[in-house]
Design a protein that fits this description.
Blueprint: E1 4-9, H1 17-27, H2 31-44, E2 48-60, E3 63-74, E4 79-80, H3 81-95, H4 99-120, E5 128-129, H5 135-151, E6 157-161, E7 164-167, E8 170-173, E9 176-179, H6 183-192, E10 196-198, H7 208-217, E11 220-221, E12 228-237, E13 248-256, E14 262-273, H8 278-290, E15 295-302, E16 308-316, H9 321-332, E17 338-346, E18 348-358, E19 361-371, E20 377-382, H10 384-394, H11 398-411
Parallel strand pairs: 1-6, 6-11, 7-10
Antiparallel strand pairs: 1-13, 2-3, 4-5, 8-9, 12-13, 14-16, 14-17, 15-16, 18-19, 19-20
Length: 417
């Protein structure tokens, strides 16, 4: 059951590991616990002589925010991906994070290492990191994992993100001069199908570590905030100051508007037919239902030149879109099928069987039971095929049989409570 909704709003000034960590501290994560990460990294990372975390309250573009600065004293030219990963594993043992937090931290670092390897056409174990090899990277990943665990976001939480702003312009780093976003940042977003938007300033707004954390944390990217009741808002400030844009990452935590409904995603396939015989449409409906579609409906209409025709609408799961579209084309001869992705609010459905008393003895009837997400029963409906069978067997009308079944349902209602 979803208890909270989190929105990571990175459409204004992008995201970095430090900004994400600072925003989580702004939401209530304990900075003293995060300081333990610095101690562990210093202990296990070869060449790391000292790590000091400094948390500040700042005003950025008129917005009060937290800013965390990671001051590292270390001596290294470049570190291997294996060295960084081994250190992360040692730190995870030290910090005794939950299994969910450990998986998140490892997945975030692996995203960085695998993407670096792909961009530079090397094996993961042969990747050597320059800026990303700093202790700063491990502190961001471990600190964010610890903060998310403390805030409870790994459980009973839906995490959304807005499209991430990547900035623009040209900047320099160890591999030379590039336009924003950096190659690794862009490849992470591309490989995960994560939405991005350019601007609003000429600067690197999305860092590789920031987006690696983001893509492993977020369940869905949305242009607009989902329906929710906002409860607490946190702001994490970046190190740079921009003239017209507050350099802050905003995270909003809220409660879902709970009307007891579940949600799923389906696709609606549509096509217009104006030259197909009724027998073909009937056969097509039977074929589609036998192929496991959710529903099929046929709507009479008038097409161009006032010709009578039909709209065929089919509800399918996303993975079945292409297969069912092909069947629809083969059976009807239509030249095109419209695909409409959509969200649905639904009730949980369960099919159970009960025995009812009739003048001919006990008879089994299937019932479709609809419940909300808290288990409350809203509807109980007898399966039509069973009602029809009993009506014919008892020589009664459908209405009479339905009344008989409902009477039996009421007498055993405790089965549903």
């Amino acid at each position: 059951m979803i208890k909270r909704i989190v929105v990571i709003d990175c459409q204004m000034a992008g995201i970095s590991g430090n900004m994400l960590l600072a925003a989580l501290i702004s939401l209530g994560a304990n900075f003293n616990n995060i300081s333990k990460v610095a101690v562990s990294v210093k202990k296990h990372l070869e060449g790391c002589e000292d790590v000091i975390l400094d948390l500040k309250d700042v005003v950025c573009g008129g917005i009060q925010a937290k800013r965390i600065e990671v001051n590292v004293k270390e001596s290294f030219d470049k570190r291997s991906g294996k060295q960084l990963r081994d250190t992360l594993i040692q730190c995870l043992k030290d910090l005794k994070l939950s299994l969910e937090a450990q998986r998140f931290a490892l997945a975030s670092l692996d995203t960085l290492l695998e993407t670096e390897a792909k961009v530079h056409k090397k094996l993961v174990e042969d990747v050597h990191l320059h800026e990303l090899g700093s202790a700063d990277t491990l502190i961001d990943i471990l600190g964010v994992a610890m903060a998310i665990e403390e805030l409870g976001f790994f459980k009973d939480t839906l995490i959304y993100s807005t499209p991430v702003s990547i900035g623009g312009g040209i900047f320099k780093f160890s591999h030379g001069t590039f336009s924003s976003p950096a190659p690794v940042t862009l490849e992470i977003l591309r490989s995960k199908g994560f939405a991005m938007v350019g601007g609003p300033v000429e600067a690197e707004l999305a860092t590789p570590t920031g987006v690696a954390l983001l893509v492993n944390l977020v369940h869905e990217v949305v242009r607009f905030y989902p329906s929710m009741i906002p409860v607490v808002v946190g702001y994490g400030a970046g190190s740079k100051n921009f003239k017209d844009v507050p350099n802050v990452l905003r995270i909003v935590v809220g409660e879902p508007l709970d009307y007891g409904l579940l949600r799923d995603e389906v696709c609606v396939l549509e096509t217009n037919l104006d030259d197909v015989a009724g027998e073909v449409i009937g056969h097509t409906m039977d074929r589609l239902l036998s192929e496991g579609v959710r529903d099929v409906s046929v709507i009479p209409m008038f097409t161009k030149k006032n010709r009578p025709g039909y709209i065929v609408k089919v509800i399918v799961d996303r993975e079945d879109v292409e297969r069912i579209s092909r069947i629809l084309m083969e059976e009807t001869g239509t030249l095109g099928v419209r695909i409409i992705p959509c969200n649905r609010h639904i009730l949980a459905r369960e099919m159970i069987s009960i025995e009812i008393d009739t003048r001919l003895g006990k008879e089994t009837v299937r019932l479709k039971v609809a419940k909300d997400n808290k288990g409350k029963i809203l509807h109980v409906k007898p399966e039509y095929d069973d009602v029809k069978r009993l009506a014919e067997k008892l020589n009664k009308s459908l209405k009479e049989v339905v009344k008989l079944i409902i009477k039996n349902i009421n007498s055993i209602k405790n089965r549903f409570d």
